[in-house]
Protein backbone atom coordinates (compact mmCIF):
# COMPACT_ATOMS: atom_id res chain seq x y z
CA UNK A 1 0.00 0.00 0.00
CA UNK A 2 3.01 2.29 -0.35
CA UNK A 3 5.12 3.36 -3.32
CA UNK A 4 8.71 4.50 -2.88
CA UNK A 5 10.80 6.72 -5.14
CA UNK A 6 14.50 7.34 -4.50
CA UNK A 7 16.43 10.41 -5.61
CA UNK A 8 19.71 12.18 -4.95
CA UNK A 9 22.16 9.72 -6.42
CA UNK A 10 25.00 10.77 -8.64
CA UNK A 11 28.74 10.91 -9.13
CA UNK A 12 30.93 12.09 -6.28
CA UNK A 13 34.64 11.93 -5.55
CA UNK A 14 36.06 9.85 -2.74
CA UNK A 15 35.77 11.66 0.57
CA UNK A 16 32.75 13.61 -0.58
CA UNK A 17 29.15 13.58 0.59
CA UNK A 18 25.77 12.83 -0.88
CA UNK A 19 22.23 12.82 0.49
CA UNK A 20 19.67 10.35 -0.79
CA UNK A 21 15.94 10.87 -0.40
CA UNK A 22 13.09 8.41 -0.54
CA UNK A 23 9.60 9.80 -1.04
CA UNK A 24 6.71 7.57 -0.06
CA UNK A 25 3.12 7.65 -1.17
CA UNK A 26 0.19 6.67 0.98
CA UNK A 27 -1.31 7.72 4.28
CA UNK A 28 0.51 5.33 6.60
CA UNK A 29 4.21 6.18 6.14
CA UNK A 30 4.60 6.65 9.87
CA UNK A 31 3.66 3.03 10.53
CA UNK A 32 6.55 1.60 8.50
CA UNK A 33 10.08 0.90 9.53
CA UNK A 34 12.33 2.08 6.71
CA UNK A 35 15.61 0.80 5.38
CA UNK A 36 18.29 1.50 2.83
CA UNK A 37 19.97 -1.32 0.92
CA UNK A 38 22.58 -1.25 -1.80
CA UNK A 39 23.63 -3.51 -4.63
CA UNK A 40 26.87 -3.34 -6.58
CA UNK A 41 27.16 -4.98 -10.02
CA UNK A 42 27.47 -8.73 -9.72
CA UNK A 43 26.89 -8.70 -5.97
CA UNK A 44 24.00 -9.48 -3.65
CA UNK A 45 21.84 -6.73 -2.28
CA UNK A 46 23.14 -5.76 1.14
CA UNK A 47 21.82 -3.86 4.11
CA UNK A 48 23.07 -0.35 4.80
CA UNK A 49 20.80 1.34 7.35
CA UNK A 50 17.35 1.22 8.91
CA UNK A 51 15.18 3.42 11.09
CA UNK A 52 12.14 2.76 13.26
CA UNK A 53 8.67 4.24 12.81
CA UNK A 54 9.23 7.08 15.25
CA UNK A 55 12.97 7.41 14.47
CA UNK A 56 13.84 6.30 17.99
CA UNK A 57 16.03 3.44 16.82
CA UNK A 58 18.55 3.17 14.01
CA UNK A 59 20.76 0.37 12.76
CA UNK A 60 23.78 0.45 10.46
CA UNK A 61 25.95 -2.11 8.75
CA UNK A 62 29.59 -2.13 9.78
CA UNK A 63 30.89 -0.78 6.44
CA UNK A 64 28.80 2.40 6.70
CA UNK A 65 28.71 2.91 10.46
CA UNK A 66 30.11 6.29 11.43
CA UNK A 67 29.85 7.62 7.89
CA UNK A 68 26.16 7.30 6.98
CA UNK A 69 23.16 8.67 8.85
CA UNK A 70 19.57 7.62 8.27
CA UNK A 71 16.74 9.95 9.22
CA UNK A 72 13.08 10.45 8.46
CA UNK A 73 10.46 13.16 8.37
CA UNK A 74 7.07 11.53 8.77
CA UNK A 75 5.25 14.79 8.08
CA UNK A 76 6.89 14.82 4.64
CA UNK A 77 6.64 11.06 4.05
CA UNK A 78 10.37 11.00 3.39
CA UNK A 79 13.38 9.06 4.59
CA UNK A 80 16.95 10.24 4.01
CA UNK A 81 20.40 8.74 3.88
CA UNK A 82 23.20 11.20 4.48
CA UNK A 83 26.43 9.69 3.19
CA UNK A 84 29.73 11.25 4.23
CA UNK A 85 33.36 10.27 3.66
CA UNK A 86 32.33 8.25 0.65
CA UNK A 87 34.60 5.50 -0.63
CA UNK A 88 34.77 3.83 -4.05
CA UNK A 89 33.43 0.64 -2.47
CA UNK A 90 30.21 2.52 -1.68
CA UNK A 91 29.44 2.55 -5.39
CA UNK A 92 26.11 0.78 -5.90
CA UNK A 93 22.46 1.21 -6.67
CA UNK A 94 20.80 2.29 -3.46
CA UNK A 95 17.28 1.09 -2.70
CA UNK A 96 14.74 2.39 -0.24
CA UNK A 97 12.54 -0.21 1.44
CA UNK A 98 9.55 -0.21 3.77
CA UNK A 99 8.51 -2.80 6.33
CA UNK A 100 4.87 -2.89 7.31
CA UNK A 101 5.84 -5.18 10.17
CA UNK A 102 7.46 -2.16 11.75
CA UNK A 103 10.58 -3.73 13.26
CA UNK A 104 14.04 -2.42 12.41
CA UNK A 105 16.16 -5.18 10.93
CA UNK A 106 18.84 -5.88 8.35
CA UNK A 107 17.04 -8.64 6.46
CA UNK A 108 15.71 -7.76 3.00
CA UNK A 109 13.09 -10.48 3.33
CA UNK A 110 11.45 -8.44 6.07
CA UNK A 111 10.75 -5.50 3.76
CA UNK A 112 7.68 -5.79 1.59
CA UNK A 113 7.91 -2.55 -0.43
CA UNK A 114 10.84 -1.38 -2.53
CA UNK A 115 11.81 1.58 -4.63
CA UNK A 116 13.48 1.25 -8.02
CA UNK A 117 16.85 2.51 -6.85
CA UNK A 118 19.20 5.42 -7.43
CA UNK A 119 22.78 5.08 -8.65
CA UNK A 120 25.66 6.26 -6.47
CA UNK A 121 29.11 6.28 -8.04
CA UNK A 122 32.19 7.22 -6.03
CA UNK A 123 35.32 7.94 -8.00
CA UNK A 124 38.87 7.69 -6.73
Describe this structure in words.
The protein has 124 residues and is an all-beta fold. Helix content is 0%, strand content 48%. It contains no helices and eleven strands. It has strands at residues 4-7, 10-13, 18-24, 33-39, 46-51, 58-60, 68-73, 78-83, 92-99, 113-114, 118-123. It is globular and about 40 Å long. The N and C termini lie far apart (40 Å).
Terminus-to-terminus distance: 40 Å
Q: What is the element string, with H for helices and E for strands?
A: EEEEEEEEEEE
Model regions low in confidence, pLDDT < 50 over at least 5 residues: none
Major beta-sheet overview: 7 strands, mixed
- Give the overall silhouette: globular
Instruction: Give the mean pLDDT.
Output: 95
Q: Determine the strand fraction and express it as a percent band.
A: over 45%
Work out the helicity level. under 10%
Number of strands: 11
Q: What radius of gyration results from the CA coordinates?
A: 13 Å
- Continuous helix count: 0
Structural class, judged by helices and strands? Answer: mainly beta
Write the layout of secondary structure elements.
Layout: E1 4-7, E2 10-13, E3 18-24, E4 33-39, E5 46-51, E6 58-60, E7 68-73, E8 78-83, E9 92-99, E10 113-114, E11 118-123
Parallel strand pairs: 2-11
Antiparallel strand pairs: 1-3, 3-8, 4-5, 4-9, 5-6, 7-8, 9-10, 9-11
Task: Give descriptors for this structure.
124 residues; mainly beta; 4-stranded antiparallel β-sheet; 11 strands; 48% strand; globular
